[in-house]
Specification:
9 helices; alpha/beta; TIM Barrel; globular; about 220 residues
Protein backbone atom coordinates (compact mmCIF):
# COMPACT_ATOMS: atom_id res chain seq x y z
CA UNK A 1 0.00 0.00 0.00
CA UNK A 2 1.45 3.34 -1.05
CA UNK A 3 1.55 6.19 1.47
CA UNK A 4 1.03 9.63 -0.07
CA UNK A 5 2.12 12.74 1.81
CA UNK A 6 -0.83 15.15 1.73
CA UNK A 7 0.38 18.61 0.73
CA UNK A 8 3.85 17.31 1.54
CA UNK A 9 2.78 16.31 5.09
CA UNK A 10 1.92 19.31 7.31
CA UNK A 11 2.96 17.24 10.34
CA UNK A 12 6.52 17.75 9.11
CA UNK A 13 6.48 21.36 7.85
CA UNK A 14 3.95 23.95 6.64
CA UNK A 15 1.70 22.55 3.92
CA UNK A 16 2.62 22.80 0.25
CA UNK A 17 6.05 24.31 0.95
CA UNK A 18 9.44 23.18 -0.27
CA UNK A 19 10.31 22.33 3.34
CA UNK A 20 7.31 20.00 3.57
CA UNK A 21 8.11 18.22 0.31
CA UNK A 22 11.78 17.85 1.15
CA UNK A 23 10.94 16.43 4.58
CA UNK A 24 8.35 14.06 3.12
CA UNK A 25 10.80 12.87 0.47
CA UNK A 26 13.09 11.48 3.18
CA UNK A 27 10.25 9.29 4.48
CA UNK A 28 7.86 8.57 1.61
CA UNK A 29 7.82 7.49 -2.02
CA UNK A 30 4.79 9.64 -2.88
CA UNK A 31 3.70 13.23 -2.21
CA UNK A 32 0.49 15.08 -3.09
CA UNK A 33 0.29 18.77 -3.92
CA UNK A 34 -2.29 21.33 -5.04
CA UNK A 35 -1.91 23.48 -8.15
CA UNK A 36 -3.61 26.66 -9.30
CA UNK A 37 -2.66 29.64 -11.45
CA UNK A 38 -1.58 32.97 -9.97
CA UNK A 39 -2.22 36.40 -11.51
CA UNK A 40 1.08 36.55 -13.40
CA UNK A 41 0.33 33.21 -15.06
CA UNK A 42 2.61 30.74 -13.28
CA UNK A 43 1.39 27.49 -11.77
CA UNK A 44 1.84 27.69 -8.01
CA UNK A 45 1.46 25.09 -5.28
CA UNK A 46 -1.34 26.36 -3.05
CA UNK A 47 -4.53 24.73 -1.82
CA UNK A 48 -7.01 27.53 -1.11
CA UNK A 49 -8.52 30.06 -3.50
CA UNK A 50 -7.65 32.78 -1.01
CA UNK A 51 -4.52 33.65 0.92
CA UNK A 52 -6.04 34.19 4.35
CA UNK A 53 -5.81 30.78 6.05
CA UNK A 54 -2.29 29.91 5.00
CA UNK A 55 -0.45 33.24 4.82
CA UNK A 56 -2.50 35.63 6.92
CA UNK A 57 -2.67 38.02 3.94
CA UNK A 58 -5.92 38.72 2.12
CA UNK A 59 -6.95 38.35 -1.50
CA UNK A 60 -7.31 35.61 -4.09
CA UNK A 61 -4.35 33.64 -5.47
CA UNK A 62 -5.68 34.24 -8.98
CA UNK A 63 -5.38 38.00 -8.39
CA UNK A 64 -1.92 37.88 -6.81
CA UNK A 65 1.32 37.83 -8.81
CA UNK A 66 4.08 35.32 -8.24
CA UNK A 67 6.35 38.07 -6.89
CA UNK A 68 3.68 39.08 -4.39
CA UNK A 69 3.08 35.45 -3.37
CA UNK A 70 6.76 34.82 -2.85
CA UNK A 71 7.01 37.87 -0.60
CA UNK A 72 4.57 36.15 1.77
CA UNK A 73 5.37 33.41 4.26
CA UNK A 74 3.34 30.30 5.06
CA UNK A 75 2.15 29.95 8.63
CA UNK A 76 4.79 30.83 11.21
CA UNK A 77 7.62 29.69 8.96
CA UNK A 78 10.03 31.45 6.64
CA UNK A 79 8.74 29.36 3.73
CA UNK A 80 7.12 31.08 0.76
CA UNK A 81 4.67 29.87 -1.89
CA UNK A 82 6.55 27.68 -4.42
CA UNK A 83 5.94 27.26 -8.10
CA UNK A 84 5.12 23.80 -9.40
CA UNK A 85 8.41 23.82 -11.29
CA UNK A 86 10.35 24.55 -8.10
CA UNK A 87 8.77 21.60 -6.30
CA UNK A 88 9.64 19.21 -9.11
CA UNK A 89 13.20 20.55 -9.10
CA UNK A 90 13.45 19.97 -5.35
CA UNK A 91 12.04 16.44 -5.27
CA UNK A 92 14.28 13.44 -6.01
CA UNK A 93 13.31 11.64 -9.20
CA UNK A 94 12.37 8.53 -7.19
CA UNK A 95 9.51 10.40 -5.45
CA UNK A 96 6.21 10.07 -7.30
CA UNK A 97 3.90 13.07 -7.37
CA UNK A 98 0.11 13.27 -7.19
CA UNK A 99 -0.68 16.65 -8.75
CA UNK A 100 -4.15 17.84 -7.74
CA UNK A 101 -5.52 20.48 -10.10
CA UNK A 102 -7.72 22.98 -8.28
CA UNK A 103 -9.19 24.41 -11.48
CA UNK A 104 -9.54 23.77 -15.20
CA UNK A 105 -7.39 25.42 -17.86
CA UNK A 106 -4.04 24.18 -16.53
CA UNK A 107 -3.32 21.16 -18.72
CA UNK A 108 -1.01 22.75 -21.29
CA UNK A 109 1.08 24.56 -18.67
CA UNK A 110 1.19 21.43 -16.51
CA UNK A 111 2.55 19.48 -19.47
CA UNK A 112 5.19 22.15 -20.06
CA UNK A 113 6.35 22.02 -16.44
CA UNK A 114 6.49 18.22 -16.07
CA UNK A 115 7.44 17.31 -19.62
CA UNK A 116 11.07 16.52 -18.79
CA UNK A 117 10.43 15.22 -15.27
CA UNK A 118 11.56 11.70 -14.41
CA UNK A 119 9.04 11.37 -11.58
CA UNK A 120 6.03 9.11 -11.76
CA UNK A 121 3.04 11.47 -11.97
CA UNK A 122 -0.67 11.05 -11.31
CA UNK A 123 -3.01 14.00 -11.94
CA UNK A 124 -6.14 14.21 -9.80
CA UNK A 125 -9.00 16.66 -9.48
CA UNK A 126 -12.56 17.10 -8.25
CA UNK A 127 -13.12 18.94 -11.54
CA UNK A 128 -13.94 16.48 -14.31
CA UNK A 129 -13.28 19.11 -16.99
CA UNK A 130 -9.76 19.69 -15.64
CA UNK A 131 -9.07 15.97 -15.96
CA UNK A 132 -10.62 15.82 -19.43
CA UNK A 133 -8.24 18.56 -20.56
CA UNK A 134 -5.27 16.59 -19.18
CA UNK A 135 -6.41 13.44 -21.00
CA UNK A 136 -6.69 15.38 -24.26
CA UNK A 137 -3.41 17.27 -23.94
CA UNK A 138 -1.07 14.72 -22.33
CA UNK A 139 -0.41 11.05 -21.74
CA UNK A 140 -0.45 11.52 -17.96
CA UNK A 141 -2.71 9.17 -15.97
CA UNK A 142 -5.60 10.81 -14.14
CA UNK A 143 -7.67 10.14 -11.02
CA UNK A 144 -11.10 11.45 -10.11
CA UNK A 145 -11.46 12.88 -6.60
CA UNK A 146 -14.80 12.73 -4.83
CA UNK A 147 -16.49 12.78 -1.44
CA UNK A 148 -20.01 11.54 -2.29
CA UNK A 149 -22.11 9.70 -4.89
CA UNK A 150 -20.07 6.51 -5.21
CA UNK A 151 -21.82 5.01 -8.24
CA UNK A 152 -22.01 8.29 -10.13
CA UNK A 153 -18.36 9.06 -9.38
CA UNK A 154 -17.22 5.69 -10.71
CA UNK A 155 -19.15 6.43 -13.89
CA UNK A 156 -17.41 9.80 -14.23
CA UNK A 157 -14.05 8.11 -13.68
CA UNK A 158 -14.85 5.54 -16.36
CA UNK A 159 -15.89 8.27 -18.80
CA UNK A 160 -12.56 10.01 -18.17
CA UNK A 161 -10.62 6.75 -18.57
CA UNK A 162 -9.11 7.26 -15.14
CA UNK A 163 -6.31 5.06 -13.87
CA UNK A 164 -7.48 5.57 -10.28
CA UNK A 165 -10.24 6.92 -8.10
CA UNK A 166 -9.60 9.02 -5.01
CA UNK A 167 -12.61 8.74 -2.69
CA UNK A 168 -12.91 10.15 0.81
CA UNK A 169 -12.04 7.30 3.18
CA UNK A 170 -15.53 7.32 4.76
CA UNK A 171 -17.02 6.10 1.47
CA UNK A 172 -15.02 2.90 1.41
CA UNK A 173 -15.79 -0.69 2.27
CA UNK A 174 -14.19 -3.93 1.21
CA UNK A 175 -16.96 -4.43 -1.36
CA UNK A 176 -16.51 -0.97 -2.83
CA UNK A 177 -12.74 -1.37 -3.14
CA UNK A 178 -13.34 -4.69 -4.90
CA UNK A 179 -15.87 -3.01 -7.21
CA UNK A 180 -13.41 -0.26 -8.13
CA UNK A 181 -10.68 -2.80 -8.78
CA UNK A 182 -13.04 -4.88 -10.92
CA UNK A 183 -13.69 -1.79 -13.02
CA UNK A 184 -9.97 -1.24 -13.51
CA UNK A 185 -9.31 1.56 -11.02
CA UNK A 186 -6.69 1.77 -8.32
CA UNK A 187 -8.05 3.25 -5.08
CA UNK A 188 -6.26 5.94 -3.09
CA UNK A 189 -8.19 7.14 -0.02
CA UNK A 190 -7.97 10.67 1.41
CA UNK A 191 -7.24 12.18 3.96
CA UNK A 192 -6.80 9.38 6.47
CA UNK A 193 -6.79 10.69 10.07
CA UNK A 194 -5.37 7.90 12.24
CA UNK A 195 -3.70 4.50 12.41
CA UNK A 196 -6.96 2.63 12.98
CA UNK A 197 -8.44 3.92 9.73
CA UNK A 198 -5.19 3.13 7.92
CA UNK A 199 -5.37 -0.42 9.27
CA UNK A 200 -8.97 -0.82 8.17
CA UNK A 201 -8.28 0.52 4.68
CA UNK A 202 -5.31 -1.80 4.32
CA UNK A 203 -7.65 -4.71 5.14
CA UNK A 204 -10.08 -3.45 2.49
CA UNK A 205 -7.27 -3.66 -0.05
CA UNK A 206 -6.84 0.01 -0.97
CA UNK A 207 -3.83 0.81 -3.11
CA UNK A 208 -2.88 3.98 -1.28
CA UNK A 209 -3.66 6.29 1.62
CA UNK A 210 -3.21 10.05 1.70
CA UNK A 211 -1.99 11.21 5.13
CA UNK A 212 -0.87 14.39 6.87
CA UNK A 213 1.61 12.46 9.02
CA UNK A 214 3.68 9.59 7.60
CA UNK A 215 3.88 8.02 11.06
CA UNK A 216 0.21 7.03 10.76
CA UNK A 217 1.04 4.39 8.20
CA UNK A 218 4.00 2.83 9.99
Amino acid sequence: MRVIGHRGCPALAPENTLAAFEAAATRLDWVELDVRRCDSGELVVFHDETLDRVTGASGRVAETSLAELQALTVGDSEESVPTLAAVFDALPDRVAVNVELKEAGLADDLAAVVGEAEHEILVSSFDAEALREVREATALPVAFLFAADWAESLSVAADLDCAAVHPHYDLLSSARVDEAHDRGFEVNAWTVPDREVVRRLREYGVDGVVVDDPALAV
